[in-house]
Amino acid sequence: MRRALCVGIDLYSVGALKGCVADAESMANVLRKHDDGSPNFECRLLVAPNSGKGDAVTRSTLKQAIDELFQGSPDVAMLHFSGHGTYNNLDGYLVTQDNKQYDEGVAMSDVLKLANDSKAGEVVIFLDCCFSGSLGSVPAIDNAKALLREGVSILTASRSDQVSVESAGNGLFTSLVVDALSGGAMDLLGEVTAPNIYNFVETALGAWDQRPLFKSHVAKLLPLRRCKPPIDTAILRELPALFPVPAEDLPLCPECEATCEKKDDEKHKMFCKLQALNRVHLVVPVGVDHMYDAAMQSKACRLTAAGRYYWRLARDNRL
Question: pTM for this structure?
Fold first, then answer.
């Protein structure tokens, strides 16, 4: 069982926003199903659009929704919040609609406590708000010290002293997270994990942009979404058969190529698999730039470092 709570607040009495409801809806849409249409997360939306026709996201309703998210023992519990964030010398806060001085909303320390106390197998928290990096830290002690139980990961739009930004009607951070979940951050098995998402988002942002923050304490990574892999996993499993000795080059010949008059069907089938591996940078031709030339000139191909990594996974039946 996988649960996701997606919260977006546009309507504030002061400082109304524009893209937070769209953020929450985008996250829920991408999380509900894997790329093949099979069910993924059961998503609950809690949104307050500027039209005033949505939910009233008060401190009590938000805290109750977060508490319900972490109840029981789901395989994965995910929280996404898009809205205002603030902090003081005591804590950081997810700002709710009924915010007032000294009671701005749900304290990030409360969110962290609920996450740490949860019996969920894995907890993932995405925060697209200003100063969200203060979650997972104790301001009075050290903002760099993470206090996470095993199985908890936190990805925030900005560090504890930064603001986050909107872009094209959505939070920049959330739009990148959605792209990552849609396949931008998948590995060769088509799986998207929290560290892959962070790497995708962090790489996409320049030195002058907001800087995301990632804190995690996990022993095993669960995929948050499965996408169509860029290569058939069955071909990956054949790597030890294609390359009996991973450090040795594999000779090629013109009979491998479909355009050769003396094409050998079995060699051509093998070559098609090698070309698929080349397209995902696991195999490279030796001495030439293209696999076609390597075959027609009777040269060879070899595994890359990544290719040898997947070779070991295939050999050990881990694919």
Answer: 0.86
